[in-house]
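Researcher: Please translate sequence to structure tokens.
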Amino acid sequence: MNGIQQGDPFSPYLFTIVMEGFSYMLEEAISNGNIKNDSTLVRNVSTILKDFDIVSSLRSNHAKSKVYMGPYITNKDFIIDTLG
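Model: Translation complete:
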């Protein structure tokens, strides 16, 4: 078999490297002004997640994912629809 499999001692290091890339993508979007506290935030985060999926060959598992929103979020349906 080729590649790294679950339980491989190298897996945690690879995960850390990949998450550093994802963190960089988010930081870059923030510094470019693409992530702000408005409705574009959700769209841009969704785009970053999709781009990360493509770049890393990983896939977000929506069945295992959750979005937590505070009580003062008024556009919850929009957020849920945008993130899928």
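Researcher: Any highlights?
Model: The chain has a mean pLDDT of 82.
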